[in-house]
Amino acid sequence: MTATLIEGKLVAEEIRAELKKRIAALEKEGIRPGLAVVLVGEDPASQVYVGMKEKSCAELGIFSDPHHLPAGTTQAELLTLVRRLNADSRINGILVQLPLPDQIDETAVIEAIDPDKDVDGFHPVTLGRLVIGVDTFRPCTPAGVQELLLRSGVNLEGKSVVIVGRSNIVGKPLANMLLQKAPGANATVTIAHSRTADLPAVVKGADVVVAAMGSPEFIRGEWLKPGAVVIDVGVNRVDDPRAKRGYRLVGDVHFESAVKVASRISPVPGGVGPMTIVMLMTNTVLSAERTLKKRTGGK
Fold first, then answer.
1. Do 146 and 243 fall within a single domain?
2. CA distance to 121, 136, 174, 205, 220, per residue, from 160 (Å)
């Protein structure tokens, strides 16, 4: 058996086509969705991510308001910018690219963002609403994982899902999303991690495995239940002298062994990665739609 690939690029294209229609409908009402992206410093990976987000805005017709600040920016200066963006009616979403320099408290910055513009889904209010099942912005990577499963026809209702990784960015919010009484959810969810006793046995019991721990090729094919669905969130660089750049990208799952056991698997790259950005665009459009709804009295 060879697993069917769950290709994030194709699913992301499908969602982008839907977003273009929603954006066109908003523009007819005089609203153009706007996203402000704030980058502090010159971290190479962050620069790449921000560039991809700005490119995606341009392709969809979303107003992009980039703010590239020097590494020496103070916390007070960044908070002043966030407050200004909160008050800017052109901006429906605010994203402050993490990580931030050491002199800035990330938690203070995230909490300063207006929850109505928290399109990254990291604000405590957003996460609290997520936990209790109230409509809110879904954090982008977990939302991308859920959409991949939903749009690939994977029925999670009553299924056993093991999420390997307990980060605030992926593991914890995804677990809460998949527990809800909602389409693409209703699963029985276990969060496992590096300290889990007999991790291979825990993974073996899962109908769906989500790998999000940041350890290259950690989860092996022999750990999987035959026919399991595997979503690999990890993106890791490993040295490879045969590769043009001297390295290659791998996930948290050992793909060559897993693909022989799983029924479906997301590749790295080309799986979850494209979904994260398109879900950011989705949240920005959703925020603009909420603005229109407020303007029209909820109609």
1. yes
2. 25, 25, 14, 7, 18
